[in-house]
Specification:
Layout (H helix, E strand, L loop, with lengths): L1 H24 L3 H20 L8 E2 L10 E9 L3 E11 L2 E2 L3 E6 L2 H4 L3 H18 L8 E7 L3 E5 L2 E4 L16 H11 L5 E7 L1 H12 L3 E7 L3 E8 L15 E5 L12 H9 L7 H6 L1 H17 L19 H8 L7 H9 L7 H33 L7 E6 L1 H5 L3 H13 L6 E5 L3 H19 L1
Parallel strand pairs: 2-6, 6-9, 10-13, 13-14
Antiparallel strand pairs: 1-12, 2-3, 3-4, 3-5, 7-8, 10-11, 11-12
Helix pairs in contact: 1-12, 2-12, 4-5, 6-15, 7-9, 9-10, 9-12, 10-12, 12-14
Length: about 450
């Protein structure tokens, strides 16, 4: 009888604890509206050149018309694995399937010198051209996706601000990465390769989406990291020193991961304090795949410490980064009442024994964390759309890429629900489209846009 009473009390405590966690991670409609207002204020400050959490970087890239034609090469460098591709544009928003080669950087290129890094990349471009039967006398226009922090000064020029993702090649920070690659290409006797555009993965995603659909005016990445971009009239970008393009639009790289006017739980504060960049990239720490699993682990660690979760000691709560966002997706896809897939995941992570109600609690914690991420993402997208179209009078297509958006079982639906709350019957005018491989295809299309612009002069 006593044991039954203890179990009943434990179930009540678990229910109360779950309710508290859900409330802590819950974002109401009013919370989302506050995010939008604050986002707009930061966007305006960033466009004016004032101190802002949103960098609002002019990319000097315009959206394509969809009528661009020709064959263009793209280099997509965003990590230890990179790709080179050739894409043929047929006009009317149509492309042929790209020809792609993948390459892997070794430690000596990642941590050595910039000369080593770019010489290796130039060698890979030469190998790709040989595979594609592109002759050295045949002029090739190349778009360069470089997904690291860059201070872009022109369409085909940008200085590396700092390395991320484990890169530390010397002699690159503060230098024009396009210039470094050009020098390496000349060394490899590839004078026929003309780098005519520099971009990042988010801008590439928008451009890839808008080539086939002119209604596409927002590009978003929700994966390991997160960011967004949109087209802005040059006249509104008051921090640009000179305006050679009149009132035409150029794409703004928002760098929205650094937005920080968000309600933080104590778990967010713990994660932030232990990160390499405290008080920075707060939105990214609440939304991106790099951090969602760790937030969840911190909650689970707290529950185990309180004696609410797992009856035997386990390794998950004490092992930083052991619980990953992929685990969350699998657990949230699991079926009640037994949660057998969750059982297998937990065992693989060192939890030898768990009850079905333990596994249900783990699933609900994952759900609370991921739903908040989706709602923050939706509020930020809504802010960008309303910046362009305050009355939401026309349709907007959002090109999205990234593993969290693509693979999480409820992320899309949670975002749609938030759009509905924020915009009512006009929610149908915001349509999200998964845009796979946007960073690579987009770089080739940007090269086509740049080439067409040069030909028109």
């Amino acid at each position: 009888m006593l044991k039954r009473l203890n179990l009943k009390r434990l179930y009540a405590v678990k229910a109360k604890t779950l309710d508290n966690i859900q409330k802590a991670f819950c974002l109401t409609k009013a919370d989302l509206q506050n995010i939008i207002r604050s986002f707009h204020a930061e966007m305006e400050r960033g466009l004016s050149g004032k101190i802002s959490r949103l960098r609002m970087i002019p990319t000097y890239v315009a959206r394509p018309t969809g009528n661009e034609r020709g064959k263009f090469i793209a280099l997509d460098l965003g990590g230890t694995n990179f790709r080179i591709l050739a894409l043929k544009l047929r006009g009317n928003g149509r492309t042929l399937p790209p020809h792609v080669m993948k390459f892997a950087l070794q430690k000596r290129q990642i941590t050595g010198t910039g000369d080593d890094l770019f010489d290796f990349i130039a060698g890979c471009i030469k190998a790709f051209m040989k595979r594609q039967n592109i002759q050295l006398f045949e002029e090739c226009e190349l778009g360069f996706t470089f997904s690291f922090p860059v201070r872009q000064t022109a369409l085909a020029s940008g200085q590396l601000v700092c390395w991320t993702k484990g890169f530390s090649a010397k002699g690159v920070v503060g230098k024009d990465v396009v210039g470094l690659l050009r020098r390496a290409l000349i060394k490899r006797a590839l004078r026929n390769v003309k780098i005519i555009a520099l971009t990042n993965d988010t801008v590439g995603t928008l451009v890839a989406g808008s080539y086939s659909d002119r209604r596409c005016d927002v590009g978003v990445i929700i994966g390991t990291g997160t960011n967004a971009c949109y087209p802005e009239k040059a006249s509104k970008i008051r921090k640009m020193p000179a305006n050679p393009i009149g009132n035409r639009e150029i794409i703004i790289n928002i760098e929205w991961g650094n937005f920080n006017n968000l309600k933080k739980t104590r778990y967010d504060k713990l994660l932030d304090a232990s990160s390499h960049n405290p008080r920075e990239q707060i939105l990214e720490k609440m939304v991106s795949g790099m951090y969602l699993g760790e937030i969840t682990r911190l909650v689970l660690a707290d529950l185990e410490k309180q004696g609410i979760l797992f009856s035997t000691p386990c390794s998950i709560p004490g092992s930083r980064l052991a619980f990953r966002t992929e685990h969350m997706s699998a657990i949230e896809s699991d079926e009640a009442p037994h949660f057998y897939a969750t059982l297998r995941i937990l065992r693989g992570l060192g939890v030898r024994y768990s009850l079905p109600d333990d596994r249900k609690l783990v699933s609900e914690v994952c759900r609370a964390v991921s739903k908040r991420a989706a709602r923050i993402s939706a509020a930020a997208i809504t802010a960008v759309v309303l910046k362009m179209d305050a009355g939401l009078k026309k349709a907007h297509v959002i090109a999205i890429d990234g593993s969290v958006y693509e693979k999480h079982p409820t992320f899309k639906d949670d975002m749609k629900e938030a759009f509905q709350e924020l915009t009512g019957e006009k929610a149908s005018r915001i349509r999200m489209v998964l845009t796979k491989d946007g960073s690579g295809k987009g770089a080739a299309i940007i090269a086509a846009v740049a080439y067409a612009s040069q030909e028109a002069k």
